[in-house]
Amino acid sequence: AGVSAEPTSRTYDCSSLPKFCFEKARVPKDVSVKKLLTDALHKNQYLKRLELQQIKDMVECMYERSYQEREYVITQGEPGNHLFVLADGKLDVFQHNKRLTSMTVWTAFGELAILYNCTRTASVKAVNKVRTWVLDREVFQNIMRRTAEMRQEQHRNFLRSVSLLANLPEDKLSKMVDCLEVEYYDKGEYVIREGEEGSTFYIIAQGKVKVTQTSDGHKTPRVINTLQKGDYFGEKALISDDVRSANIVADENGVECLVIDRETFDQTVGTFEELQSYLKGYVATLSRDDKKRLERSSSR
Ligand code: CMP
C-alpha cells in the first residue's frame, strides 16, 4: 500500500459545536447529483439499512474531491475518516497489494471503517483521474447521533402517553428510554409464544397484535384479544417467573414494539415489589373497563 491520500478534515470542527452542527456542513448540489448519491448509498449493502433521513442528510453534506492517476484514495490498515462515492473515473481495490476488483462510477466505498470503527480493510487507488464525493466521519457521526436523539425523544413522548407509565418519575422514564430496544414484526410473526419462558416486557409503538391462547378441547389457539399502539404485554414476566400464558402474533406488517427486559426494568424502574405496588396504584386509577383488561392480562 502507498501513501494515504485521504482528504484532511475541512475547517469546521464538529466536536465543539452544538449537537445539530452538521447543518453547517451542508454543501449545495444539483438535484440530479443528489439522486445519484442517494442511489449509490442505498445500493451499498452496509449503508442501505440506514434510515431515509440519515441518507438524505449524508447526501446534503458530501463535498467533491479529485484524485490524480495512481493516487491512493484509501490505504489498507489506516484509520478511516471519510466515506466516498465514486463520481467519475476508475478505481482499483487492493488487499495486501493484490488487486481484487475495480469500481464503477456511483459506487459508495470506505463505509466499513466509518460504520464499524475499524481500520481500512482494503486500499483504493485511482487508475486514472478520479472525482469523488466525500463525507467526513465527524459529520456522519453527528447525523447518527441526531437521529438517535430524535428517536429517544419520540420514545420518551410515546412512553409518557402509555397509561401504565404516565406517573413514572422523569428520571426513571429517561433511564427506561436509554435501555429499551426496538423490535419489528411482520404479519403472522410471533412476538411471544405460549408456554415459553420469557423475561421481556413489550409496549406497542406501532401496529396491532393478536393475543391467542390454547384452550381445552381446541387444537388451534383461540383469539382472545387484540392489542394496539399504546397497549402492552409480557408484563407478567416482570413480576413472576411463570411461562408465557398466551401467544402474541403480529396482525399487520411493521408492528413496532419497544422492549424492556426484566433486568433493565429492575435497574431502571425498580424492584418487583416496587413495580407491583406501582401496578396496584395504577389499577386504582383505572376505569372499570381498563381494570377488566388488566385483570384479563394478568390472569393470562
Ligand atoms: P473500508 O474498509 O472503510 O475502506 C476500504 C474499502 O474498500 C472498504 O471499506 C470497502 O468499501 C471496499 N472494499 C473492501 N473489500 C472489498 C472487496 N472485496 N471488493 C470491493 N470493495 C471492497
UniProtKB/TrEMBL annotation:
<feature type="domain" description="Cyclic nucleotide-binding">
    <location>
        <begin position="46"/>
        <end position="161"/>
    </location>
</feature>
<protein>
    <recommendedName>
        <fullName>cGMP-dependent protein kinase</fullName>
    </recommendedName>
</protein>
<feature type="domain" description="Cyclic nucleotide-binding">
    <location>
        <begin position="164"/>
        <end position="270"/>
    </location>
</feature>
<comment type="subunit">
    <text>Interacts with GRIA1/GLUR1.</text>
</comment>
<comment type="similarity">
    <text>Belongs to the protein kinase superfamily. AGC Ser/Thr protein kinase family. cGMP subfamily.</text>
</comment>
